[in-house]
């Protein structure tokens, strides 16, 4: 993989094994970038249970050789491979033979407030190995890679997982902030009576937030269940950090729920505003129709080609008809605009 100024240049491709990137963490040192052959050498060595070194391997599942390579060279449980092919994408974390199998939902690297820009990350975490796999580039994983490339120290795979969950919460916080900005803009246009097409953005935002919450809402509950009975190899500090990240994530989900309610109220206000405008337009149209009714009826009657039409021979006949029409129109206008009696 290419390096720029001593750091890895983020790449979204993969080698022949489907590996996007691999890092070795050893003895409280920054992650060391490994190639596939180096990863294989490390996996083939007997691992000491007291060893503090561990690997993070990140794979591209669209590569045909990824699953075959994982089957041949890692001890991932079958539950992990079954999870890769399940239709359900709801966030969850579960135990499987001293492994943690996690399904995490995240937004794409080029997220553009489209509900379809949400994809899934699959994780398999054990004492000395974290395997992550995705089909599309995701923001949270990119943030974690940037942190590793910047030299941040990680003590265990659980610290990587905790950092990933916090990055996910940060990404969601950014989405909520951007959504709030868009909603504020719509509210400003509503107050200024200049809604134009911006009201359609509310529906898109609401659909996005609903989908995000539907996919992500199970995550805090799954993490809290995990924290009640963590794996034996999970350190106490990791449990504490994971609990904190879970609480932060719960706050973000609460903000998303509040934002959905705000959008709902704003949509109702806009709908009421639009209905009021429609009612006003309908009222004006009705008044115009009522006021035009006398002249239409009289001109229709006077236009009949029959004998006995009054004032047909009178020089002032036209003005007499005009006076009659004007009088009837004034009476109709008075009846239409007359204040209604109110109950006292």
From TrEMBL:
Per UniProt, the keywords (alphabetical) are: Cell inner membrane, Cell membrane, Ion transport, Membrane, Transmembrane, Transmembrane helix, Transport, Zinc
> Where in or outside the cell is it found?
Cell membrane
Looking at the keywords, is Lyase present? no
| UniProt keyword ATP-binding, yes or no | no
Q: Which CDD domains does the record associate with it?
A: ZntB_u1 (cd12834)
**Transmembrane feature ranges:** 282-304, 316-337
Main subcellular location: membrane
Sorted alphabetically, which PANTHER family does this protein's record hold? CORA FAMILY METAL ION TRANSPORTER (EUROFUNG) (PTHR46494), ZINC TRANSPORT PROTEIN ZNTB (PTHR46494:SF3)
Q: Which family does it belong to?
A: Belongs to the CorA metal ion transporter (MIT) (TC 1.A.35) family.
Q: What is this protein called?
A: Transporter
What is the protein's species of origin? Undibacterium danionis
């Amino acid at each position: 993989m290419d390096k720029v100024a001593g750091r890895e240049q983020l790449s979204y491709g993969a080698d022949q094994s489907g590996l996007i990137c691999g890092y070795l963490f050893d003895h409280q040192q920054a992650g060391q970038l490994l190639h596939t052959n180096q990863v294989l050498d490390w996996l083939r060595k007997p691992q000491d249970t007291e060893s503090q070194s561990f690997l993070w391997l990140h794979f591209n599942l669209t590569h045909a050789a990824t699953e075959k390579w994982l089957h041949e060279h890692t001890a991932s449980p079958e539950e992990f491979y079954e999870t890769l092919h399940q239709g359900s994408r709801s966030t969850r974390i579960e135990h499987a033979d001293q492994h943690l199998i996690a399904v995490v939902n995240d937004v794409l690297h080029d997220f553009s407030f489209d509900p379809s820009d949400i994809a899934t990350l699959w994780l398999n975490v054990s004492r000395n190995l974290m395997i992550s796999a995705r089909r599309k580039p995701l923001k949270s994983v990119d943030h974690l890679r940037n942190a590793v490339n910047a030299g941040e120290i990680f003590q265990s795979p659980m610290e990587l997982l905790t950092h990933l969950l916090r990055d996910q919460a940060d990404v969601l916080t950014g989405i909520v902030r951007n959504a709030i900005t868009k909603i504020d803009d719509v509210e400003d246009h509503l107050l200024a009576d200049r809604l134009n097409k911006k009201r359609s953005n509310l529906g898109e935002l609401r659909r996005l937030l609903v989908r995000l919450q539907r996919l992500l809402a199970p995550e805090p509950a799954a993490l809290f269940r995990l924290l009640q009975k963590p794996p034996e190899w999970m350190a106490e500090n990791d449990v504490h950090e994971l609990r904190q990240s879970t609480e932060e994530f719960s706050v973000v989900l609460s903000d998303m729920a509040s934002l959905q309610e705000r959008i709902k109220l704003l949509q109702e206000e806009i709908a009421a505003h639009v209905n009021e405008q429609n009612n006003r337009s309908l009222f004006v149209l009705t008044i115009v129709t009522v006021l035009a009714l006398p002249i239409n009826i009289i001109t229709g009657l006077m236009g009949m080609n029959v004998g006995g039409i009054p004032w047909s021979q009178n020089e002032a006949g036209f003005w007499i008809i005009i006076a009659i029409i004007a009088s009837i129109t004034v009476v109709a206008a008075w009846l239409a605009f007359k204040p209604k009696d109110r109950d006292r």
